[in-house]
Design goal:
Elements (H helix, E strand, L loop, with lengths): L1 E8 L15 E6 L2 E7 L8 H16 L3 E3 L5 E2 L2 H8 L3 H11 L3 E9 L1 H10 L2 H10 L5 H30 L5 E4 L6 E9 L4 H15 L3 E9 L7
Antiparallel strand pairs: 1-3, 1-4, 1-5, 2-3, 6-8, 6-9, 7-8
Amino acid sequence: MLCVYGVVRADHPGVTTSGVHGRPTRIAPLGDLGVIVSDVDHELLARRRDVEAHLTVLEFAMKHGDVLPFRFGMAVADEDALVVALEESVPRFRALLDALGGRVQMTLKVVRDDFESMRAAIARDARLRRYVERGRDSTVIADRIALGAQVANAVDELTERDAQVILDRLETVADAIRPNPPAPSVVASLALLVRPQRVPELDSLVEDLRQQLGTRATFNYAGPMPPYSFVA
């Protein structure tokens, strides 16, 4: 059985680090391309050491050439089965290598702090601030519900504004941006396709955004990595 890591150009030098189950990797031919594979003794289970080995192989591959990464878990019986499974996709793989070549993926997830965002939303809106001050001590349920709705709307508007600012700034550096599905309290969750020489510029931009949003948001920024989000 073969564990499949990713598609590379035929002239890729390969990966010397061990793969899943500690087995050596090799490049199996696929038309005018190649596929990084390694033998495995049994079915793939998402154990931490095996997932990390899979990621390490792809990171090493990325350092020495373009790679289209596969998620952990793809396995085929042998090289003949590999060709049967993937040969129809060779034109698409070739086009993706051309489109994504010379670029890496960075990821950014920005999550708002609801309390700090509420404070910021109230502080920046004088009319809402007066409304809050008037309604803070009200014991009428309808008044408190209305106040809560006003504040929630203001927080959502601030979040949308922050999300747009983040996107506008990142578009000045990234060649492509792919958003992840929206989730509660998430201001932005993005995959960024970037040329390696522009990663320091992106690092600085993300730090500026972190300072700009301050305590009302938490930033989780990672990479560089192979372009997982742009292969599907």
